[in-house]
Amino acid sequence: MLRGFHITKGFVDFPDSGGGLYVEDSDATFVQCVFAGNRSAVMGGAVAIWGGSPSFVNCRFYGNDGGWAAGAIYIRKSATPTFVNCLLYSNQAWEGGAVAITTGAATFVNCTLSENAATAGKGGAFLDSRGEAALRNCIIWGNTANTNGTDEIFNLPAAQGSTAVTHSNVKGGWPGEGNLYSDPLFVDPATGDYRIRQTSPCKDKGQNASLPTDVADTSLDGNTTETLPKDLGLNARIHGDSVDMGAYEWHPEDN
Ligand SMILES: [Ca+2]
Ligand SMILES: [Ca+2]
Asked: Where would a tag sit more exposed on the chain, N or C end, judged by fewer CB atoms within 10 A?
């Protein structure tokens, strides 16, 4: 387990991928890590995941540039990574502004993806070509793509990429149980503050059953079998009636 690593300003040139980190057939867990300002000429500005089942918990990815595809995270070789309480913003690539999945099955729980950009093609936040992705309790809002109608999520239809979205807030809407299309009311995205305001429609609209166990021990109490107890800000993951959508739980002291 790697806790508290900051991986910044890495670069890989053609034909390599993963500007900050290349993870091959690994089940490593990355906790409270920051990936910022990394760059790839081809695929995966921050991280390339080739096989394996790595986990990223309470990690932030911003300002990464993937080159051709995957501004932050590139997934292939049937990898099955998991992302929990992660924030991905202001990443860019020609296609797949934050994430591109060639093959594999990625799971995102309580992640926030915003202001990512596909500068020359499709999928402002997600580009899923032949993989499967499950997005639960997520906020996917305000990403942009050069191709009309693919600002947030794009599945390559002919290749049967499939992104299953539930209990999430997606700008423009997306089919799936419990999904919303309503401004999440971030506190101050201009300064990277993607907490939600008291009046946010995302409050209490996640599904508690989607929360994983605390494998990364975000609470640092030695208990890794309890239900995820912390959010990205290390505040209680559930406040009020139910878990919120997104990486941060709303708390009265927030705003
Ligand atoms: Ca709540
Ligand atoms: Ca714990």
From this structure: N
Residue 158 confidence class, pLDDT cut points 50, 70, 90 = low
How many whole angstroms from 111 Cα to the centroid of ligand 2?
19
- Is pLDDT of 76 > 70? yes
Residue 15 lies in a domain: yes
Q: Is residue 29 part of a domain?
A: yes
With a threshold of 0.85, does the pTM exceed it? yes
Residue 145 has pLDDT above 70, yes or no: yes
Distance from Cα 203 to the centre of ligand 1, integer Å: 5
pLDDT mean over 216-223: 97
Higher pLDDT, 162 or 39: 39
**Inside any domain, residue 158:** yes
Let me know if residue 248 belongs to a domain. no
Q: How far is the CA of 221 from the centre of ligand 2 (A)?
A: 5
CA distance 251 to 254: 5
Query: Which residue range is the domain that position 27 belongs to?
Result: 2-243
> How many angstroms separate the alpha carbon of residue 236 from the centre of ligand 1?
9
Q: Total structural domains in the chain? A: 1
